[in-house]
């Protein structure tokens, strides 16, 4: 007679019954302004720099809409109590449009000359490793160390001997010449980033240097060209020393020199001067706003290697 007892297999192999996990209520996370990667000193410095830049612009803009009487009675940072456009009308009546036109002509001509000459030079330097190209690039870098003030007397003498004194060409030629070195440096760094295989493939297809320049380099280097265009336009538009030394007649006067003359003629009319400042900075400020991304990208191209 057998003494073994039967064992219920279900009772042995069945897993213990546990209660289903209860879902906890989701923890609501509020957006955090700071994380472990937040650069607090950098943010504070940026905010301080923004205030330093914005507050003077706000003061200039609001002052241009004040009258001469409310300028002294209103608080400096308050909105104009009696806004008026009389200051802008007064600036237009002072020949502002003629000075504005001269600035536009000088800026566009100097930028076109500087960019065109620099593109040709940068293409030659970037594509050739000959000792002549390297020497030429070293001379271009040396040109960055020559301050404008040190060359103003020779420039004045040369332009006077050429009969160009007191003309717009007297402003265009030296402005373009001083813009060429930094333009070549930026374009050379950008052109060196273009793969050499593209040039070699076009060369195998029989393309000349001019064809590669216009059909390959020019489209690919458009961000760099926009960068140097904006950068040079800022410098030429705000230039003061060349117009002061190389021109004399009101017919060839440009905006920076005109603002200086407004300051002399409208000594006590601060709102009138501020209206002229606002109108003079609108074109170049608009150009900078629309091209600031290309400006930063082009200036940093090639420097990350």
Question: Describe it for me?
Answer:
By secondary structure, the chain is mainly α. Helix content is 69%, strand content 0%. It contains 14 helices and no strands. It has helices at 9-13, 40-64, 68-73, 86-93, 96-127, 131-143, 148-161, 169-191, 196-204, 209-220, 222-237, 241-246, 255-265, 270-300. Helix 8 runs antiparallel to helix 11 (222-237), helix 11 (222-237) packs antiparallel against helix 14 and helix 13 (255-265) runs antiparallel to helix 14 (270-300). 25% of the residues are buried. Residues 1-7 have low confidence and may be disordered.
What labels would you give this structure?
305 residues; mainly alpha; 0% strand; globular; disordered N terminus
Give the structure's gist in a few sentences.
By secondary structure, the protein is mainly α. It has helices spanning 9-13, 40-64, 68-73, 86-93, 96-127, 131-143, 148-161, 169-191, 196-204, 209-220, 222-237, 241-246, 255-265, 270-300. Helix 2 runs antiparallel to helix 14.
């Amino acid at each position: 007679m057998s003494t073994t007892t039967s064992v219920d297999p279900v009772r042995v192999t069945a897993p213990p019954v546990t209660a289903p996990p209860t879902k906890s209520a989701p923890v609501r996370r509020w957006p955090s302004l700071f994380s472990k990667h937040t650069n607090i000193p950098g943010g504070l410095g940026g905010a301080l720099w923004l205030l330093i830049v914005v507050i003077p612009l706000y003061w200039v803009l609001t002052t241009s809409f004040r009258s001469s009487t409310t300028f002294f009675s209103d608080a400096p940072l308050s909105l104009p109590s009696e806004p008026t456009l009389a200051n802008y009308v007064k600036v237009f009546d002072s020949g502002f449009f003629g000075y504005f036109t001269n600035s536009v002509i000088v800026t566009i001509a100097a930028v076109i000359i500087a960019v065109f000459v620099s593109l040709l030079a940068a293409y030659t330097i970037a594509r050739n490793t000959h000792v002549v190209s390297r020497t030429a690039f070293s001379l271009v870098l040396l040109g960055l160390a020559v301050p404008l003030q040190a060359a103003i007397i020779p420039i004045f003498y040369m332009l006077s001997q050429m009969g160009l004194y007191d003309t717009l060409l007297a402003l265009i030629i030296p402005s373009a010449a001083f813009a060429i070195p930094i333009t070549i440096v930026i374009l050379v760094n950008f052109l060196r980033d273009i793969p050499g295989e593209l040039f070699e493939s076009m060369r195998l297809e029989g393309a000349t240097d001019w064809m590669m320049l216009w059909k390959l380099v020019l489209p690919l280097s458009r961000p760099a060209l926009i960068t140097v265009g904006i950068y040079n336009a800022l410098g030429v538009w705000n230039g003061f020393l060349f117009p002061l030394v190389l021109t004399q007649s009101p017919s060839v006067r440009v905006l920076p020199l005109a603002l200086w003359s407004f300051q002399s003629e409208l000594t006590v009319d601060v709102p009138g001067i501020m209206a002229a400042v606002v109108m003079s900075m609108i074109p170049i400020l608009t150009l900078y706003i629309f091209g600031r991304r290309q400006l930063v990208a082009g200036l940093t191209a090639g420097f990350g290697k």
